Amino acid sequence: MLKIKNLTAEVEGNVILKGLDFEVNPGEVHAIMGPNGAGKSTLAAVIAGHPNFKITSGSIEYNGKQLLEMEPEDRAREGVFLAFQYPIEIPGVSNANFMKSAINELRKYKGLDPLDSPSFLKMMREKAELVKLDKSFLSRSVNEGFSGGEKKRNEVFQMAMMDPELIFMDETDSGLDIDALKVVADGVNTIQDGKKAFVMITHYQRLLDYIVPDFVHVLADGKIVRSGPKELAQELEKTGYDWIH
Fold first, then answer.
1. Phi then psi for 165, rounded to 5 degrees?
2. What is the pLDDT of residue 122?
3. Is-contact 55 8, C-beta < 8 A?
4. Residue 244 has what pLDDT?
5. Is pLDDT above 70 for 234?
6. How far apart, in Å, are the Cα atoms of 225 and each of 36, 87, 217?
7. CB neighbours (10 Å) of residue 1?
8. What is the separation, in whole angstroms, between the first and last Cα of the chain?
9. pLDDT of residue 211 exceeding 60
10. Residue 95 in this model has a pLDDT that exceeds 80
11. Domain 2-244: which CATH number of 3.40.1180.10, 3.40.50.300, 3.50.80.10, 3.40.50.10420
């Protein structure tokens, strides 16, 4: 599904990713851990197509297509989803209207007719129930006045609605208490259908107690320096990252 080869990326002249290699197959759950400044969030931003990051070498192949040749919106239409560390607020735009526009853009890209209002409302209610999002949130402005946990839960709802194939979650556990973390994890586990691939970027092992990864990778100084099974996350929790230096 995703094949990254010798990827080098920089921002404002600072080289962040330094020849990174990474591969993800359908249905897999990967966790990327590492110290601050290692390049974890940079990798997510590059995948999404953030314009501030300059790719100086390497390639990213997604479902046989060159991802770096796609505009950010086309990456989303092709099934790439980025859950933000700090989801933005969009005052004046309701969740319902936001999602209807997004869904119908996806359908247009795929050559399908737009959903009519009754079909969309039915779909939205079903997905909200699936991820345990209170229906009152559907009429509220996107993330406006939401708590940290509510914003993250709303992103899981967006995932359920848009049905992406490749999902990068950039420090989704940041700022969440245990109850909110469980709700988000339950939502992610609910929409995992064995075909979607998840890449979870995190500092801490606790998220991985609820969303169990198939592989754990340590990213340091712009490269993956170690990979292993889920037990590697527990080891890192005990030892930290001093061994990298």
1. -100, -35
2. 93
3. yes
4. 67
5. yes
6. 15, 29, 8
7. 18
8. 32
9. yes
10. yes
11. 3.40.50.300
HSE-up of 12 (CA within 13 Å, CB side)? Answer: 1
- Average pLDDT of the segment spanning 78-90: 85
| Residues across the chain | 245
Do 85 and 170 form a contact (C-beta atoms < 8 A)?
A: yes
Tell me which residue has tokens 């940079």. Answer: 42
Domain spans of the chain? 2-244
Question: What is d(CA 66, CA 78) in angstroms, rounded to the nearest whole number?
Answer: 11
Tokens of residue 205, six digits: 């092992």
Beta bridge partners of 24: 2
Tokens encoding 132: 């345990």
Output the pTM of the full model: 0.88
Q: What is the mean pLDDT of residues 53-65?
A: 93
DSSP collapsed to 3 states, the chain: CEEEEEEEEEECCEEEEEEEEEEECCCCEEEEECCCCCCHHHHHHHHHCCCCCEEEEEEEEECCEEHHHCCHHHHHHCCEEEECCCCCCEEEEEHHHHHHHHHHHHHHHCCCCCCCHHHHHHHHHHHHHHCCCCHHHHHCEECCCCCHHHHHHHHHHHHHHHCCCEEEEECCCCCCCHHHHHHHHHHHHHHCCCCCEEEEECCCCHHHHCCCCCEEEEEECCEEEEEECCHHHHHHHHHCCHHHC
What is the model's pLDDT at position 105? 92
Q: Which of 19-23, 50-54, 121-125, 130-134 has the lowest mean pLDDT?
A: 130-134
Report angle CA 149, 150, 155 to the nearest 5 degrees.
Answer: 100
pLDDT tens-place string over residues 187-199: 888 888 888 999 9
> Does residue 245 register a pLDDT over 60?
no
